[in-house]
């Protein structure tokens, strides 16, 4: 540290000591010392090292018995944070502590709230700029959130001063948590607004801040209609709201509406002069608001309100911006003194058209203003307007006279102070403008009480919208809106019951007109209504398309890793529908698909076979329960189709054919026939045989059938078949578990010889003996014997059989047997 | 709780506010006085020929001498010189409220127009730190008798305000009582620095 710094440090130390030491000195003196110390630390030391050094000492005064000193410490915290924002990490908890000050001293609490008001925008700004906030920063943010919560709780405090400070805090929060727009009044260059918060901050949620801000504003607006608010706090709230309206013009409409309602609904607890103060203040704020550029759509409203508050023509004129249409019109001679004149034109234009009026380039300024005012009125088709219109129609001279007479009976004997101060003699009574104005004021009252056609309309619309949404949700036509969606598109009103509070217009924020709303509703209804049931052809066509599409998306499914699912899907779709035209087309499609690329789609084929089998067996329960026989048929059909198609395409040599046969759970007779045909094929019969052999070996249940097929080949004339069959038979004969079957077959075959005529089974195209013969001849006898002879060397017990047969055979047969036996 | 920082204001910082200032200062209050008009205006030989001076440049002494020079008899007769003499014993020159940077707890305005001007000023200022200030108005006619009576009332009001433990909380009540006692209309609001 340099010398200068050292000496400053010494000074600070001495000041603090003085402050600590004077225990029986006046608090003012101690405060002086502390102030000097603060001055030195904060303003005389650019490096901040003094702050670091003396922070803890200064914070010790937090628990001082004197409230002023404690207040001072709170102020010091603010100054320190302004100088060095990082310190908030340490001091957040201090603030919280001081808020719940032990002795409950009001001034300390107020000071804390005040400091929080100033600190919050700075804190938010600093935190949102942090690119990589650390744990401590996050903790500090949470601490501050707790502080915020506690402060906001004070809004219900009994102490008026605390409430005042809380309103200011609310204002600060709202301004910091709402985005700035182009029309925002340019306040300090470094003032915080929501658009400075990044959307992807680690622990600050943009959305949450936005929602909170909206809640705060509503809370503030509600204060205006509270019955027991004190005059001071009412004034505070009014000034806060005006400030917010200027800096965040999107809320201007809401604020103005609230002011209108307030004007006719002042809290009954106010005294005469308080009422006067409030009205004066309101007038002042409104005059200033006229100057704001964003208020120009509301000028007629504001000027009417001002006139009610007692503003003179001159004052209003002065306050209007120089290029205002309204001003020009008001200045023109010959107009009535009442500023509400545009309403007259408005009435005419209103009757003329019901849709949104485009401001035409008209020479006549009057019409310009009227239509501009007209479109403005249309835009805010609020409950108040509807009720106002309704009342306007009803306020005939007769009705008004009746009303006055009736209410005279209810008037008190003395004019209440409220009335006396706010009573301004009505100029131009009975003019159309005045009637309109009156009806609007009554409408405000009605709406505030929740009666009247406007409110009912609002309720109806809200209810209808809700029902629509529900029905649309049922139909799946509308996605339930996310909370963000709701708050973005329908700021103040929500679509769900209960209906929105009557003070606020029920329409969406972007001001859709009544008619547009109706057509919007129609659109939503339409969707639910125009869907009519599809025609069956259309339906099946669509289903077909869908299936084809699924089939064609195999590649994508593979890429996406959903190959299994894809296969399953296709197979199930093909299998599970009840037999019908649709199903067969599915099956055809699937078949074609499989055939197109056998190698890669063999799994699909197998899956299909298995699926049908599973259905047959009842492994998969189907909604369309078919008879067992039907299911079996289906399975068989499926299997056969595959095999036959393959065979017809000449692809039975391909693996798929054989794979199916080998892997199918059950071989139907038709399938067996297919196989047989395959075996008979001149070129590729060998494959068939091999498959057959495999099947015999692997399928115990169907072995006999398969054996029959195989061994049948043994008496065929074709040498290759015969040879193959015999070879295989020989092989199989050597397997113990097959031998008995083979033996039996052989025996049967031999006994055929004993029959008077050759059995028909020997004959046929396939066997090579096209013509059926009635008599045994050598060939036929030989045919029966081939197998036997083949097997004889392997098992000598067969000789016995032969001997038996020989004994019973006729001469011809005996001769053949001998001859055959001789040839080794 | 400590002395309130008071301010009283009329339009020229000559008659009513200085009378109140004098009373309050004698009673030991921490008080300053101001004018909120554009210029310091004193009655001249006729109503349409007032004496006009600029704030913060002409001292009471200067004005005194100026009036002496113009028409000593007239101004002695209507009491202006006496008033200026009293004024220059209290402070040096008229102060304009709008240019003053001090902060107060309570500002008392002595005419509705003054009230409007001061509010206008306070509300158009950039808000700095949100410290609150109460602005109260009590109408006093601009002549010597009324100024004196008015000053007494102001004094009474300030005594009551100082006696409050918690000003913000109790000021409403105090003002209502006071109103009914002196039978004058009081306007009251709160502004933020």
TrEMBL record, chain A:
<keyword id="KW-0507">mRNA processing</keyword>
<protein>
    <submittedName>
        <fullName>Symplekin/Pta1 N-terminal domain-containing protein</fullName>
    </submittedName>
</protein>
<dbReference type="InterPro" id="IPR016024">
    <property type="entry name" value="ARM-type_fold"/>
</dbReference>
<feature type="compositionally biased region" description="Pro residues">
    <location>
        <begin position="496"/>
        <end position="508"/>
    </location>
</feature>
<dbReference type="InterPro" id="IPR032460">
    <property type="entry name" value="Symplekin/Pta1_N"/>
</dbReference>
<dbReference type="GO" id="GO:0005847">
    <property type="term" value="C:mRNA cleavage and polyadenylation specificity factor complex"/>
</dbReference>
<dbReference type="InterPro" id="IPR021850">
    <property type="entry name" value="Symplekin/Pta1"/>
</dbReference>
<feature type="compositionally biased region" description="Basic and acidic residues">
    <location>
        <begin position="324"/>
        <end position="335"/>
    </location>
</feature>
<dbReference type="GO" id="GO:0006397">
    <property type="term" value="P:mRNA processing"/>
</dbReference>
<feature type="compositionally biased region" description="Acidic residues">
    <location>
        <begin position="360"/>
        <end position="371"/>
    </location>
</feature>
<keyword id="KW-0539">Nucleus</keyword>
<feature type="compositionally biased region" description="Low complexity">
    <location>
        <begin position="484"/>
        <end position="495"/>
    </location>
</feature>
<feature type="region of interest" description="Disordered">
    <location>
        <begin position="472"/>
        <end position="513"/>
    </location>
</feature>
<dbReference type="Pfam" id="PF11935">
    <property type="entry name" value="SYMPK_PTA1_N"/>
</dbReference>
<feature type="region of interest" description="Disordered">
    <location>
        <begin position="320"/>
        <end position="380"/>
    </location>
</feature>
<dbReference type="InterPro" id="IPR011989">
    <property type="entry name" value="ARM-like"/>
</dbReference>
<feature type="domain" description="Symplekin/Pta1 N-terminal">
    <location>
        <begin position="106"/>
        <end position="323"/>
    </location>
</feature>
UniProtKB/TrEMBL annotation, chain B:
<keyword id="KW-0904">Protein phosphatase</keyword>
<dbReference type="Pfam" id="PF04722">
    <property type="entry name" value="Ssu72"/>
</dbReference>
<dbReference type="GO" id="GO:0008420">
    <property type="term" value="F:RNA polymerase II CTD heptapeptide repeat phosphatase activity"/>
</dbReference>
<protein>
    <recommendedName>
        <fullName>RNA polymerase II subunit A C-terminal domain phosphatase SSU72</fullName>
        <ecNumber>3.1.3.16</ecNumber>
    </recommendedName>
</protein>
<keyword id="KW-0539">Nucleus</keyword>
<comment type="function">
    <text>Protein phosphatase that catalyzes the dephosphorylation of the C-terminal domain of RNA polymerase II. Plays a role in RNA processing and termination.</text>
</comment>
<dbReference type="GO" id="GO:0005634">
    <property type="term" value="C:nucleus"/>
</dbReference>
<comment type="similarity">
    <text>Belongs to the SSU72 phosphatase family.</text>
</comment>
<keyword id="KW-0378">Hydrolase</keyword>
<dbReference type="InterPro" id="IPR006811">
    <property type="entry name" value="RNA_pol_II_suA"/>
</dbReference>
<keyword id="KW-0507">mRNA processing</keyword>
<dbReference type="GO" id="GO:0031124">
    <property type="term" value="P:mRNA 3'-end processing"/>
</dbReference>
């Amino acid at each position: 540290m340099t010398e200068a710094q050292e000496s400053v440090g010494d000074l600070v130390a001495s000041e603090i000591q003085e402050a600590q030491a004077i225990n029986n000195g006046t608090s003012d003196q101690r405060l002086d010392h502390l102030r000097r110390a603060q001055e030195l630390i904060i303003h005389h030391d650019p490096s901040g090292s003094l702050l670091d050094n003396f922070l803890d000492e200064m914070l010790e005064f937090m628990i001082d018995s004197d409230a002023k000193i404690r207040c001072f410490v709170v102020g010091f915290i603010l100054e320190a944070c302004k100088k060095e924002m990082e310190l908030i990490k340490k001091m957040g908890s201090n603030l919280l502590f001081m808020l719940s000050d032990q002795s409950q001293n009001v001034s300390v609490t107020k000071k804390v709230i005040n400091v929080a008001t100033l600190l919050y925008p700075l804190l938010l700004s600093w935190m949102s700029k942090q690119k990589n906030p650390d744990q401590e920063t996050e903790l500090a943010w949470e601490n501050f959130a707790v502080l915020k919560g506690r402060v906001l709780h004070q809004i219900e405090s009994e102490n008026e001063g605390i409430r005042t400070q809380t309103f200011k805090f609310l204002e600060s929060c709202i301004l910091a948590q709402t985005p700035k727009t182009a029309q925002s009044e340019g306040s300090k260059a470094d003032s915080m607004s929501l658009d400075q918060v990044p959307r992807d901050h680690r622990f600050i949620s943009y959305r949450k801040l936005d929602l909170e801000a909206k809640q705060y504003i509503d809370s503030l607006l509600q204060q205006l209609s509270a019955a027991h608010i004190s005059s001071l706090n009412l004034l505070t709230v009014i000034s806060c709201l005006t400030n917010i309206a200027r800096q965040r013009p999107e809320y201007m409409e809401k604020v103005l509406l609230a002011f209108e309602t307030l004007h006719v609904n002042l809290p009954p607890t106010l005294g005469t002069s308080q009422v006067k103060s409030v009205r004066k203040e309101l007038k002042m704020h409104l005059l200033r608001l006229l100057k704001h550029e964003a208020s120009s759509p509301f000028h007629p409203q504001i000027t009417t309100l001002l006139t009610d508050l007692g503003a003179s023509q001159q004052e209003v004129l002065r306050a209007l911006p120089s290029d205002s249409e309204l001003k020009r019109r008001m200045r023109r001679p010959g107009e009535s003194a009442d500023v509400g004149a545009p309403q007259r034109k408005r009435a005419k234009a209103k009757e003329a058209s019901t849709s949104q009026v485009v401001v035409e380039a008209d020479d006549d300024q009057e019409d310009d203003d009227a239509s501009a005012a007209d479109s403005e009125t249309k835009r805010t088709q609020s409950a108040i307007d509807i009720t106002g219109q309704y009342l306007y129609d009803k306020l005939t001279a007769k009705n008004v006279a009746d009303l006055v007479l009736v209410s005279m009976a209810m008037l008190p004997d003395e004019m209440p102070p409220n009335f006396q101060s706010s009573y301004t003699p009505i100029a131009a009574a009975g003019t159309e403008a005045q009637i309109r104005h009156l009806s609007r004021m009554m409408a405000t009252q009605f709406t505030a009480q929740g009666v009247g056609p406007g409110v009912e309309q609002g309720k109806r619309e809200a209810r209808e919208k809700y029902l629509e949404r529900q029905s649309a949700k049922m139909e799946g036509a509308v996605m339930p809106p996310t909370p963000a969606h709701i708050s973005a598109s329908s700021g103040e009103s929500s679509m769900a019951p209960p209906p929105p509070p009557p003070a606020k217009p029920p329409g969406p924020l972007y001001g859709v007109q009544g008619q547009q709303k109706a057509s919007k509703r129609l659109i939503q209804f339409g969707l639910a209504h125009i869907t009519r049931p599809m025609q069956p052809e259309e339906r099946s066509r669509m289903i077909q398309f869908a299936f084809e599409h699924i089939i064609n998306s195999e590649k994508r499914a593979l890429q996406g890793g959903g190959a299994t699912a894809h296969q399953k899907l296709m197979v199930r779709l093909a299998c599970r529908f009840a037999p019908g035209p649709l199903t067969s087309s599915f099956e055809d499609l699937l078949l074609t698909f499989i055939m197109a690329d056998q190698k890669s789609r063999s799994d699909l084929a197998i899956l299909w076979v298995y699926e049908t089998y599973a259905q047959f067996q009842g492994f998969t329960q189907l909604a369309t329960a078919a008879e067992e026989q039907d299911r079996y048929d289906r399975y068989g059909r499926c299997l056969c189709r595959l095999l036959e198609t393959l065979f017809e395409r000449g692809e039975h040599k391909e693996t798929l054919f054989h794979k199916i046969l080998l892997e199918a759970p059950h071989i139907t007779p038709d399938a067996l026939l297919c196989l047989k045909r395959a075996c008979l094929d001149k070129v590729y019969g060998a494959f068939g045989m091999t498959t057959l052999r495999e099947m015999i070996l692997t399928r115990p249940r169907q072995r006999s059938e398969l054996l029959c097929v195989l061994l049948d080949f043994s008496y065929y004339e074709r040498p290759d078949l015969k040879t193959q069959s015999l070879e295989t038979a020989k092989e199989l004969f050597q397997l113990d578990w097959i031998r008995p079957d083979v033996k039996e077959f052989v025996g049967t075959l031999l006994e055929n010889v004993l029959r008077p005529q050759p059995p028909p089974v020997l004959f046929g195209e396939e066997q090579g003996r096209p013509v059926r013969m009635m008599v045994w001849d050598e060939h036929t006898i030989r045919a029966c014997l081939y197998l036997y002879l083949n097997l004889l060397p392997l098992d000598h017990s067969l000789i016995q059989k032969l001997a038996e047969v020989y004994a019973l055979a006729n001469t011809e047969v005996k001769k053949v047997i001998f001859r055959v036996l001789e040839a080794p | 709780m400590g002395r309130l920082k008071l301010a009283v204001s009329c339009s020229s910082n000559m008659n009513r506010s200085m009378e109140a200032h004098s009373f309050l200062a004698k009673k030991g209050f921490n008080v300053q006085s101001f004018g909120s008009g554009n210029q310091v205006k004193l009655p001249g030989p006729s109503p349409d020929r007032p004496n006009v001076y600029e704030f913060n440049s002409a001292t009471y002494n200067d004005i005194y001498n100026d009036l002496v020079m113009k028409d000593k008899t007239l101004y002695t007769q209507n009491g202006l010189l006496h008033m200026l003499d009293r004024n220059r014993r209290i402070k040096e020159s008229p102060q304009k409220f709008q240019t003053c940077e001090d902060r107060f707890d309570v500002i008392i305005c002595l005419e509705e127009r003054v009230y409007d001007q001061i509010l206008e000023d306070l509300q158009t200022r950039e808000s700095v730190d949100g410290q609150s200030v109460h602005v109260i108005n009590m109408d006093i006619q601009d002549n010597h008798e009324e100024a004196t009576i008015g000053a007494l009332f102001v004094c009474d009001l300030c005594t009551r305000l100082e006696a409050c433990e918690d000003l913000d909380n109790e000021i409403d009540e105090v003002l209502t009582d006071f109103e009914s006692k002196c039978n004058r209309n009081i306007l009251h609001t709160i502004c933020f620095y």
